[in-house]
């Protein structure tokens, strides 16, 4: 099967945020604001800007957005930022602050941030037109006035970066959803647009299942926007209304920021205060029993199904079947010290390095061996949806009794159900609860920890 391509464009938002913070910080030294502590003020405005941006969706500018939307975003951003800015003067009692200089600072931030935002917005449009970069290949299912208008937009608005490939008419004699999906896979299509009014519930279900299992973006062309649930994202391509699924809680910008911040802090503490002494100790114990490296690196599938090397303490003697054969009960390859560290899950501890580097999260769906992923996706519906988020050291499925060896199809089916529930209902409290339960399970012992 074909997997979703990596998107370099994911780096645009953090780079823009970094540039805006640079503008904010440089401006502090351009005006004689006369603060008592410039460094605490810089930290304050930087944190405030990030929080306001995440809540405001300041960097969530769609490719089909208009300039007026940039003005609207900037207005909300600056109004909230000014309130927080002047709150600093009151909370931290800055009697000598130059109010004219502070007003000039606000004007400077407004003008320079907007100018930079518009410049990036303009250059991205030119980049899509002239160099065909940052694009999306799309197909449309349905043949009515709205689908024809949408196709016209795809073809005429080259600055949006949509590469229209094909239209499938539901009324055609040889039409079938299977034919559409075959085309998507064979041609590496990124996004599927379809008219809700022309498809049956079963056909829509087929499309939703396919998009989940193959990491494709699915968007709806509604016949009446009032009939849809509120958790769908509503967008306009010119004047054509488009709906897209928004069922991944961690994809919300503020949620993503909170989760990544927690991962960095938590993994840093573990690396400094646990792995700093545990790794040398494990190296001695492992090497006393068997020759070979202390760490075991194995390729796993991560976010967007990209491969990465998952770190573990080596628990088996060196063998050729490591990447193909899952560990079973009483597996002869497992060493004596390996049995202990697997039983206590200590073998997973080096994965905090994966978390710190951004390849994994503390909590999330467990990453499987590549050879097993190919098998499991055929057994469990929506299996590939697990790869919409970073894999975790522990997860909801693991603390719910679905860890270790998959002995029956029901094991992987239930594991996937728990994983999908997690990514659709994520909260920081849920993560903390899963971590606490994981620690308790280590002391109680688990039947499948072998």
TrEMBL record:
GO terms for molecular function: phosphotransferase activity, for other substituted phosphate groups. One of its GO terms (cellular component) is membrane. It is a multi-pass membrane protein. This is Exopolysaccharide biosynthesis polyprenyl glycosylphosphotransferase. InterPro entries: Bact_transf (IPR003362), EPS_sugar_tfrase (IPR017475). Keywords: Membrane, Transferase, Transmembrane, Transmembrane helix. It holds the Pfam family CoA_binding_3. It comes from Maribacter luteus. The keyword Membrane applies. Residues 259-443 form the Bacterial sugar transferase domain. The lineage of its organism: Bacteria, Pseudomonadati, Bacteroidota, Flavobacteriia, Flavobacteriales. It is found in: Membrane.
């Amino acid at each position: 099967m074909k997997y979703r391509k990596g998107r370099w464009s994911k780096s645009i938002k953090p780079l823009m945020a970094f540039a805006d913070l640079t503008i904010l910080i440089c401006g502090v030294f351009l005006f004689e604001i006369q603060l008592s502590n410039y460094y605490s003020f810089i930290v304050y405005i930087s944190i405030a800007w990030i929080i306001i941006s995440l809540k405001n969706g300041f960097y969530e500018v769609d490719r089909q957005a208009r300039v007026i939307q940039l003005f609207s975003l900037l207005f909300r951003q600056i109004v909230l930022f000014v309130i927080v800015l002047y709150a600093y003067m009151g909370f931290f009692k800055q009697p000598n602050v130059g109010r004219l200089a502070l007003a000039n600072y606000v004007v400077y931030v407004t003008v320079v941030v907007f100018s930079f935002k518009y410049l990036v917005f303009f250059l991205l449009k030119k980049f899509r037109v002239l160099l065909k970069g940052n694009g999306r290949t799309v197909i449309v299912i349905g043949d009515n006035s709205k689908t024809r208008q949408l196709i016209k937009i795809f073809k005429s608005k080259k600055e949006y970066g949509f590469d229209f490939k094909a239209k499938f008419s539901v009324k055609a004699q040889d039409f079938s959803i299977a034919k559409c999906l075959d085309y998507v896979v064979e041609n590496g299509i990124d996004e599927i647009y379809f008219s809700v009014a022309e498809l049956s519930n079963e056909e829509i279900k087929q499309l939703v299942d396919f998009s989940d299992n193959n990491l494709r973006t699915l968007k709806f062309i509604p016949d009446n926007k009032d009939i849809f649930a509120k958790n769908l994202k509503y967008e306009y391509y010119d004047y054509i209304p488009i709906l897209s699924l928004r069922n991944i809680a961690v994809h919300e910008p503020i949620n993503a920021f909170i989760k990544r911040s927690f991962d960095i802090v938590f993994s840093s503490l573990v690396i400094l205060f646990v792995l700093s002494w545990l790794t040398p100790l494990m190296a001695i114990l492992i090497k006393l029993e068997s020759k070979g490296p202390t760490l075991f690196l194995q390729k796993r599938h991560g976010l967007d199904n990209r491969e990465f090397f998952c770190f573990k303490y080596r628990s088996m003697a060196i063998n050729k079947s490591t990447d193909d054969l899952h560990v079973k009960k009483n597996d002869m390859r497992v060493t004596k010290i390996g049995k202990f560290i697997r039983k206590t899950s200590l073998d997973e501890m080096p994965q905090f390095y994966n978390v710190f580097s951004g390849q994994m999260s503390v909590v999330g769906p467990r990453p499987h061996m590549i050879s097993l992923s190919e098998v499991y996706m055929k057994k469990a519906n929506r299996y590939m949806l697990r790869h919409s988020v970073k894999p975790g050291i522990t997860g909801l499925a693991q603390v719910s009794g679905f860890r270790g060896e998959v002995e029956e199809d029901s094991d992987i089916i239930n594991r996937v159900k728990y994983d999908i529930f997690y990514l659709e209902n994520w909260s920081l409290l849920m993560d903390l609860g899963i971590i606490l339960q994981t620690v308790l399970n280590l002391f109680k012992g688990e039947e499948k920890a072998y």
